[in-house]
Every structure is written in structure tokens, then in C-alpha cells.
Amino acid sequence: MSDDWNVYRTRFLVRAKQLSEFVEFTDPLGRHHSGKPGDYLVQSSEGLLRIAPREIFEDVYVILAENAPRSFSSGDGRSFSTGHNRSFSPTELLPS
User: Fold this and answer.
1) Residue 20, SS3?
2) What pLDDT digit, counting tens, does each position of 53-79 carry?
């Protein structure tokens, strides 16, 4: 194995908020998600929600701005509009 290292970054932009309480939900694809305080609720540019453990999220993602602009590019030519995304409280995420 070579001793040469390369630097990488993720190319996807996401919206995220840190959880202040336990949350669990099933996404539209039928996958179960759960998170504890300190983990992050992550919304992809496609609108899907998932939970990222704090240790992984804070290692992978760097905040671009405290208050993101209304829309921005995902880096691959697609537009991601924050104006159409809604905020979820933990109780809204729980399956009924």
C-alpha cells in the first residue's frame, strides 16, 4: 500500500438539526430510524430524513452557514430549495 494520502469531501449538501430528545420514525422506504439527544436529524436534497450519530455527523459534515440561503446547488447541478422543507418536531416524526 502506498504512503500517499488523498483528501476527499462529500459532495452532497444536507440540512440537519441536532436532536434534543429521543426520536424514532419509519421513512417512506420502510426503514426504521432512531436517535438520541446529540444525534442529528438529516434531510437529503431529495427530502428523505435519516438519523446520523453525533460522532459520525460531526466528523463528516462542516456547517456552511448558520442560516442557509433559501436555495443552493447540491454540487451536481440539482437545486435544493430550503423554502419548501418543513421543520419536524420529534412527535411529528413518530409513526401513527
Assistant:
1) coil
2) 999 999 988 887 766 555 544 444 444
Number of domains into which the chain is organized = 1
Domain containing residue 84: 15-93
Contact of 49 with 33, CB cutoff 8 Å: yes
Q: How many CB atoms lie within 10 A of CB 25?
A: 19
Q: Tell me the per-residue pLDDT of 33-50, one tens digit each, with 9 for 90 and over.
A: 999 999 999 998 888 999
Within-domain flag for 45: yes
Burial of 16 (0-12, 13-18, 19+ CB in 10 A): middle
Place of cell 444525534: 39
- Residue 35 and residue 22 in contact, taking contact as beta carbons nearer than 8 Å: yes
CA-nearest of 47, 56, 57 to 27 is 47
86 within domain boundaries: yes
In a domain, 10, yes or no: no
